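Q: What would this chain look like folded?
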Amino acid sequence: MIAEVKELARAHTGEAIQTLVSIMTNAKAAPAARVSAANALLDRGYGKPLQHITGEGGPVYVARIPEPCKTVEQWVASLGDQSSPKPSNGSAAEAT
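A: My prediction, written as structure tokens:
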């Protein structure tokens, strides 16, 4: 279905280009319509201009992702003392 629509649209390419040219060159046409037609012609003839993303003016975020461990033993060793539970609720049981 999509291929058929493309084929039908492409059959009218010449007429569409002529229409855009006639709008662009018609002094009685609204200026916005003339500019729009000119832009459409340029986009189809040369492609849309590239839009460079510079990243200026915004914050820069860097994510440092750790290397994955190759073995379970390596992962357990990387935990260090984190694997033993440490109560931190401030109860009297901690002080004893």
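Residues 9-46 form one domain.
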